[in-house]
Amino acid sequence: MTTAPSYHSICRWTFNAGKGGFVPGNIREQWNSSNLDTVKTVQLIKKEIAPRLPGYIQLGFEVHYDSEIEEKTAPAVADALVDAKVALAMITPGAHSHFAYGGIASLDAKERKAAEGLGCRTVDIAYGTLAKAWHKDPALFPTLVLWNGSYGYDLATIAISEMYRNLKKSVADLCSYETKAGGKLYIAIEPKPNEGHPAMLLPTIASAILFWRKLEEEFGITRTKKGVNKEFGHSEMIGLDHVYDSVEELDNNAMVHMHLNSQGYNDGIILGGPGKYDIDHGTRINGMNIAIAGLLRKAGFNRWKGHDMQVRPYDNEKQGIDRVVRSILSWEACDMAARELDEKMLLTYLTSRNTAKAEDMIRDAVCRANECFKTLNH
Q1: What is the DSSP string of 101-143?
Q2: Across-strand partners of 306?
Q3: Is 198 left (phi over 0), alpha (psi -120 to 50) or beta?
Q4: What is the pLDDT of residue 244?
């Protein structure tokens, strides 16, 4: 069993009373906002989740500003994180909670200015009150993630190019602001093909990588510590290959954060996949995740692996906690199987076109990962 540290971050938004809409909105009454605030969420992680994980796993926390944390609540949250020995792994401006017409890409100058202000205040709170909760290792300093949920549109017009120009200028300005604040944060774009609009700017991993190169070319923004928050499920939603996405990220030195989740179509057990809405299952044990774990290990990636997931709409609180634990342990099981895989033999089979034998090896690795999961989840 490995003793090398492995870093997993847990998201505040996972702990909700219910999604509502077509499913119950209050099935987990104990997780209502009046019963479970952000401080109590950190305490829940300390009490209910951390003891169920192997000792080599270190936990981080992910949070939206200003819906899940803001200036008044930040001191108590920072104290709770320090007490729980949980580091601030990621913070993101919750622009989608406020802006419906493009946010920092908006054609409405008033909305654009307000969204830009939200981003700057996110930087301020990270460097200010929350700084005491950063990990001591600079290689594990938090990521400022820019999710594109507000950078969207539903009309096909020439104005899309103007929105893209606005986006570049706004993100460049935010990067400059963060540099003046200290330049210690990692900054990542989180691509998504849709939600909360039918069409989005920066929908894919390749879009985000190109975006950073354009910011370097046009505004002189260094690409050091800039990159992508790759969410596995977002690639799956439009039928893209998140294994190849990982290759692109690593090849461009752009992998700074990740969200380990799934839309569910690739393990033959749960449903979902291309053309479906964002389901946000936890990590699944499958050959694709074993391949990504192997790529990360070979590349030396050892930053935060976030679990941007929703517990099932029929889960109670106990089952919801179990979902988070199982997601973390499922990734660790995939990583163990990747480490034990005979890469030399795999490449020998592939070089000689003996792909059936290669497939057998991957199938065996999946079986091994399942056995590792059972051992970890005792």
Answers
A1: S-GGG-SSHHHHHHHHHHHHHHHHHHHTGGGGGS-SSGGG--E
A2: 9, 259
A3: alpha
A4: 97
Measured between alpha carbons, how far is 12 from 45 in angstroms, rounded to an integer? 10
Q: Which amino acid is at 279?
A: I
Predicted local confidence at residue 263, as pLDDT? 85
What pLDDT is stored for residue 171 in this prediction? 98
Q: Is the dihedral of CA 275, 281, 282, 287 positive or negative?
A: negative
Beta-bridged to residue 145, according to DSSP, are 188
- Classify 293 in phi/psi space as left (phi over 0), alpha (psi -120 to 50) or beta: alpha
User: Which of 83, 97, 91, 95 shows the shortest CA–CA distance to 40?
Assistant: 83
pLDDT value, residue 271: 87
Cα separations (Å) of 227 from 1, 168, 196, 281? 32, 14, 22, 24
Q: Which of 146, 211, 220 shows the shortest CA–CA distance to 176?
A: 220
Q: Among 310, 287, 257, which residue's Cα sits nearest to residue 60?
A: 257
Q: What is the pLDDT of residue 31?
A: 98
Structural domain boundaries in the chain: 6-341
Q: How many degrees, rounded to 5, is the angle at CA 93 between CA 90 and CA 97?
A: 130
The answer to whether residues 249 and 189 touch, using CB atoms and an 8 Å cutoff, is no
Mean pLDDT by 10 residues, the chain (378 residues): 85 96 94 96 98 98 98 98 98 95 97 98 98 98 95 96 98 98 98 90 96 98 97 89 96 97 84 82 96 97 96 97 98 98 98 98 98 96
User: Structure pTM?
Assistant: 0.97
Give the pLDDT of residue 281.
93
- What is the Cα–Cα distance from 71 to 74, expressed in whole angstroms? 5
Cα(354)–Cα(87) distance, rounded to whole angstroms?
46
* Secondary structure, 3-state, 29-52: HHHCCCCCCHHHHHHHHHHHHHHH
Give the CATH superfamily of 6-341: Divalent-metal-dependent TIM barrel enzymes (3.20.20.150)
CA separation for the pair 202, 56 (Å, rounded):
36
Q: Identify the helix (H) or strand (E) that includes residue 237.
A: helix 232-237
Measured CA to CA, the distance from residue 213 to residue 325 in angstroms comes to: 37
Task: Indicate the DSSP class of residue 12.
Answer: G
